[in-house]
Design goal:
eight-stranded parallel β-barrel, 43% helix, 15% strand, globular
């Protein structure tokens, strides 16, 4: 697999000796879903991602042919990618693992589309997925997301009780909405979120509120929600730095989704420009990384 963008790799300050940050853009987030039907082609999307200075993208490996096409285009641009997959059985992960070994990528981000009633019901799935990934020598993370295994914050904390070394990919917007945190967020809920971040090895970038999964970060009256997430991401980076090896890489995925994630007006058009907001998030997270790096910790 091609190395990440040489410019980004050289320009981006590193925490410690050689730790790196990769800021990725979600291909799903590049869907426009406008009433006029106008969409960017895959080639246009990847050109935009490259020209904007992202280090790569996330690619859904659910369709092997599309995955090969997307990763080939990313490789041509010197970009990297993380693997997205939705899996409902232990065996369902195997073709994803095999495709990942063929095409490469930073890691597999698994969204487990199971909703067990008890923790005991979840254990065989988690054990099976982890054993398969370990045997194949691939890095597997489980995303925190609604309507999957990790839909509930407390259930996910119980998973961590059972599997203290479970590796997560933190999309905190789902917990904020799912638990409808009040603002300011209570000390108890802050502690819960910090525990999730202490088990997270990648972060996803989306800002929500207690009632909405995704809010426009450019609207001034919603600035306190952006500040909340920036604080969580800062904690997550610092926590990762303490746990990760000296040559480790942290991925931050900008994932501002299309409607119904994005808020639309009566005409069906979005109220803000998600692409421009993704560029803002990219710059904010890199600046946060620089600030932490400058502190030497």
């Amino acid at each position: 697999m091609a190395a990440p963008r040489s410019a980004a790799a050289c320009d981006e300050p590193r925490i410690g000796r050689v730790q790196r940050l990769l800021v990725l853009q979600s291909l799903w987030a590049m869907e426009r879903r406008r009433p006029d039907g106008q969409e960017w082609s895959l080639e246009e999307k990847i050109a935009m991602i490259a020209d904007a200075g992202f280090d790569g993208a996330s690619v859904d490996f659910g369709d092997a042919a599309c995955s090969r096409r997307a990763t080939a285009l990313l490789r041509e641009r010197g970009l990297t990618w993380q693997v997205e997959c939705f899996v409902a059985t232990v065996a369902g992960l195997r073709p994803i693992v095999e495709l990942h070994r063929e095409l490469g990528g930073t890691h597999i981000n698994l969204l487990p589309t199971i909703r067990p009633y008890t923790l005991d019901e979840a254990v065989p799935f988690v054990e099976g997925w982890r054993d398969m990934a370990r045997a194949a020598g691939v890095d597997l993370l489980i995303e925190t997301h609604r309507n999957v295994l990790t839909t509930d914050l407390i259930f996910t904390l119980h998973l961590l009780d059972r599997f203290p070394d479970l590796r997560l990919e933190a999309d905190l917007s789902h917990f904020l909405v799912g638990r409808e945190f009040g603002y300011p967020v209570s000390d108890e809920n802050q502690a819960h979120v910090h525990r999730i971040l202490d088990a997270s090895w990648a972060i996803q970038g989306r800002v929500g509120s207690r009632e909405q999964i995704q809010v426009p970060i450019t609207f001034p009256h919603l600035g306190h929600w952006l500040d909340l997430f920036l604080g969580w991401w800062e904690y997550g980076i610092r926590s990762w730095h303490r746990r990760a090896g000296p040559d480790a890489t942290l991925t931050f995925l900008c994932e501002l989704g299309p409607k119904e994630y994005a808020i639309t007006g009566a005409d069906g058009y979005e109220l803000s420009d998600r692409w421009q907001e993704a560029l803002i998030l990219k710059d904010l997270i890199r600046e946060l990384w620089r600030r932490i790096a400058a502190e030497g910790r």
